[in-house]
Amino acid sequence: MATPITKAVIPVAGLGTRFLPATKAMPKEMLPVVDKPAIQYVVEEAVAAGLSDVLMITGRNKTALENHFDKVGELEQALLSKGDAEKLEKVKFSTDLADVHYVRQGDPMGLGHAVLRSKMHVGREPFAVLLGDDIIDERDVLLKRMLKVQQKRNTTVVALLEVDPSQTHLYGIATVEPTGDDDVVRVTGMVEKPAPGDALEPRRDRALRAAAGDLRDPRVDAPGKGGEIQLTDALQALATGPEWAGGVHGVIFRGRRYDTGDRLDYLKAIVQLAVDRVDLGPEFRPWLVEFAAELDDRS
């Protein structure tokens, strides 16, 4: 049996340039999605899957992340004095949500390099990597399923989404073959953001030799696409490597996912989550329908 996973690593060192000037002084992960910062949704997903030991890989201007998950005594006291128990509970919830640790990435050398910075914390244990701007709807199980597959097969596991061929240049693309489970495939190759027409021709010349689930060899080969150390290259090495590497399997996810790292998808995420809120949806949905009906009349 595989060693149980108890730790989550969340790279959050990105500059968030797509959201400038809003992210000039505030981390993009702290942008509100309805009434919680995006990063809290991600940590909640980890905790719901049983991973309460969370390491964030941070960079400059990310202290707001640390403050959010830290105790704010004066704020709690002010809410207590006002008798605002509801807001006090929300504030304390984020403080007590998880055991959160932080380490700086330093030079922005790519997602693979950010994951490597976790090696002193995770040691030789397998661990989960979650992206700080990638929200999975709490009604759709993904991470728990991935952990179950990892335990059963003792392998590296990635989440896979089906994308239109015209969009392959925006994602890391995997070639796969079926297994005995409908939602699980074996990954036979991976390539980072291939050019159109190249999606099924993964590179094999470069590999990060430390990847999610296996940091036993900390050596790093030459940088990959974009001059950065790509996590995709590591997964490619594991997928095509020797038997002891364990291979790579993918869990195909067809549920609700919100990409808060893109401006348009960020706006969609707020609307999609808000309409389903018990406290907001009943008033928000009728207004939204009325607003949408009026759009055609706008010049």
UniProtKB/TrEMBL annotation:
Annotated GO MF terms: nucleotidyltransferase activity
InterPro entries from the UniProt entry: GalU_uridylyltTrfase_bac/arc (IPR005771), NTP_transferase_dom (IPR005835), Nucleotide-diphossugar_trans (IPR029044)
Signal peptide: none
TM regions (residue ranges): none
Pfam families: NTP_transferase
Chain ranges of the Nucleotidyl transferase domain: 7-196
Catalytic activity: alpha-D-glucose 1-phosphate + UTP + H(+) = UDP-alpha-D-glucose + diphosphate
Keyword set, alphabetical order: Nucleotidyltransferase, Transferase
SUPFAM superfamilies per record: Nucleotide-diphospho-sugar transferases
EC number: 2.7.7.9
PANTHER family with a match to the protein in the record: UTP--GLUCOSE-1-PHOSPHATE URIDYLYLTRANSFERASE
Protein family: Belongs to the UDPGP type 2 family.
Protein name per Swiss-Prot or TrEMBL: UTP--glucose-1-phosphate uridylyltransferase
Organism: Pseudolysinimonas kribbensis
